[in-house]
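Worked problem 6 (solution included).
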Amino acid sequence: MFEDLSDKLEAAFARLRGRGTLSPADIKEGLREVRRVLLEADVNFQLTREFLERVEKRAVGVTALSAVSPAQQLIKIVHEELAAMLGERREGLKLSSVPPTIVMMVGLQGSGKTTTAAKLARKLKGEGRPTRLVAADVYRPAAIDQLETLGQQLDVPVYADRTTQDVVRIARAGIDEAKRARDRVVIIDTAGRLQIDEEMMDELRHLKDAVRPTEILLVADGMTGQEAVKIAQGFDSALGVTGVVLTKMDGDARGGAALSIYGVTKKPIKYIGVGEKPDALEEFHPDRMAGRILQMGDVVSLVEKAQAAFDEDEAKKLQKKMKKEGMDLTDFLNAMRQIQRLGPLEGVLKMIPGVNTKMLKQAKMDPNRMKHVEAIVLSMTPAERKDPSLLNGSRRARVARGAGRSISEVNRLLEQFREMQKMMKKMSQGGGRMGMPSMPGMFGMR
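Solution. The predicted structure is:
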């Protein structure tokens, strides 16, 4: 996400960092490079021009402070203006004072609307808001089947009626059922088209007038850049959308849609889709995203991810056991599985301040390393996991065969595990705070 944009902005600012003072000519030169980078990222031309004018106006007169260089001050200004460009502040989902809150999902075919509706339902249910999905896409083949399958997988109820193509009737019946079940939120998955047409918009307008939704969320493909912005303008002028969900952001290295959509439409980005898994829907925070783009990290989001992924009771049990008996390979496997819930390790590490894309490339991370480690540990007997000293040469060979890995990988894992045991023992003796251990070597970082 934003990888190309981040790398190019980092290179643009690297030229300014070594200078003790920044003259107006230096600032112009730096911003000229930023302009080129933003336009290459498919950011709206008018927005780019206004953004650079604001930055230049604020940057004039920036002088060296005792602890902060002019280049760092300029980056701070760019960070604040980027956050403003992305939406200034986080705007969450509006909830009706009288439930159920009704959310209409709109968008073109192929934008990921049905999947996003299910992801949002899962997210709201996890927050303690019982949610019902309504299948109002009566035109796309298997759209209802897809939503019902997703609902079963996520344990979210789905209302569907295959006897009619009257979407207003379907939506009203689904809302009535939600009221009887005391659901807090109803998400209506509407039909999409390959392009915006008047017939499509008329149907959506009738549906909007009939159900009076609290939110109309446009689901747009982030990888389409300025096309997503034009689509947002079209839906907004016809319906008055209240927010945007940008999908496929995990594959968007440029970020033009995210950086343009708020500035052009003034409609906030409320969520971003960052993968295919059911939990791959993130709340959108403009200031945090600006920090990620400038490779400043995003510790707040990392902590929130950890809180959602880690089982607190399990962590406390592990901490207590490690203080008493030390950590064995079964404990390590459980800890590793909790870390895996955070998502791809590379994405997690990018949230740490000071870690940038270039560093991660140099680290030569192996994305399959976690699976290899898990296979090795699961190939051991319970006794071997409890006491790795039992693993002599012949046992290690057996474990390697069972995991489909080399003996050298088994040896390396055991050596790294011994090092980690020593570290945990020192922390325990020193009264340090215990938590999820840091295990970059285990996960293929050299």
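Discussion: The first helix runs from residue 3 to 17.
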